[in-house]
Amino acid sequence: MIELKKLTKVFDPGGVKAIDEVNLTVPEGTVCGVIGSSGAGKSTLIRCVNLLERPTSGQVWVAGHDLTTLGEKDLRQARRNIGMIFQHFNLLASRTVYENVALPLELAGASRQELDQAVQPLLELTGLADKNDSYPAQLSGGQKQRVAIARALASKPQVLLCDEATSALDPQTTRAILSLLGDINRRLKITILMITHEMEVVKSICDRVAIMSHGKIIEENAVEQFFLNPRTELAKEFVRSATHEKPVAEIEARFQAEPLAGARPVVHLTFVGQGVVQPLITRAARQFNTDFNILQADIETVNEKAMGFLMVEIMGEPGAIEQSLQFLRGASEAGSTVQVEVIGYVS
After folding, report:
1. How many domains does the chain have?
2. Are 74 and 219 within one domain?
3. pLDDT score at 176
4. What is the number of other CB atoms lying within 10 angstroms of the CB of residue 158?
5. 119 and 95 co-located in one domain
6. Residue 179 CA from chain centroid, whole number
7. Using CB atoms within 10 A as the burial measure, which of 24, 32, 113, 143 is most buried?
8. pLDDT at residue 277 above 60?
9. How far apart are CA 142 and CA 136, in angstroms?
10. What is the pTM of this model?
């Protein structure tokens, strides 16, 4: 549905390359999150998808059309197929909820009957049926974002772009908006591209995730595999932040990178799906006569799937410790539901 090919955006003066030959594919009906630190180029990327920013080079394919080749008239028509939600709502203060949602259709010349037929179902879908005649000043932040979502859906787009759509909201409202977007994706089969710096967004709603750094996509994967096996250091940092992983201070003070004599390995295990309920630690402890000191444990829900994170210190005779490690690694190699990583040693 969305395909970016060698997309590049250079800002003059100074030749600042905000996007650097990005390739990204978002399959039809999926939710893809693009995450990265501030200044990574995320917002510029999403504004290039509907050509609010015209790329310096590369191609932007949406629903089978390369938008970079279209003239202004055809581009305006193509943009009706792309809804967009912003961080700060961008509602018109002088218009009611109904009138804000109806605005794109009014600009397209829709009749009053067509407006009613389109707007009322959207107000129902977004939980705003009782706010028909309210003005933005009378709404909460979450309600304002719901109006913005309904407005973005008014022209029945196939693609929805979300630029930090939950960044201005409190955690509870964020969860409600993400739940609404997930419901819209499932009901309407709309392809969603989300720009965010919040891992909660990725965990809650995304099917795929891409990491941006200095204008480049440095890692892309299905969200479960992203959490299970992050490949780049930046991805690992994001996963650690999402799962609040950090060794306790007294253990961290004894951490060492190399396996010196007498040192015990500290192992990080990630489980997903059926891997969460596998008694691997118990089996390894019994079979090889080793003890496992649990330093940290957490279970998260990632894209509606259970995911477990465990940090353990393995204690015992050196040979038994190595056998336990081999057992755990064997479980990892046997399937994609368990990931094992030795992150250091303690003595």
Report:
1. 2
2. yes
3. 92
4. 17
5. yes
6. 13
7. 32
8. no
9. 11
10. 0.83
Which of these ranges, 3-7, 144-148, 241-245, has the smallest mean pLDDT?
A: 241-245
For residue 226, the tally of other CB atoms under 10 A from its CB is 25
- Which alpha helices (H) appear in 140-270, and where do they start and end? 141-153, 171-188, 199-205, 223-228, 233-242, 249-252
Is residue 20 assigned to a domain?
A: yes
> Which of the listed residues 202, 229, 256 is the one where a domain comes to its end?
229
The residue segments making up the domain with residue 10 are: 2-229
- Which residue, among 156, 196, 159, has the nearest Cα to 178 in the 3D structure? 196
Angstrom distances, CA of residue 87 to CA of 16, 84, 297: 24, 10, 34
Q: Are residues 270 and 216 in the same domain?
A: no
Beta-sheet strand order (sheet of 216-222): 82-85, 159-163, 191-196, 31-36, 208-213, 216-222
Cis status of the peptide bond prior to 13, with omega within 30 of 0: yes
Angstrom distance (rounded) from CA 205 to CA 185: 9
Could you report the per-residue pLDDT of 104-134, keeping only the tens digit for each?
999 888 898 999 899 999 999 999 999 999 9
Among residues 173, 206, 229, the one where a domain terminates is 229
Alpha-carbon distance of 33 to 35, in angstroms, equals 6
Same domain flag for 171 and 213: yes
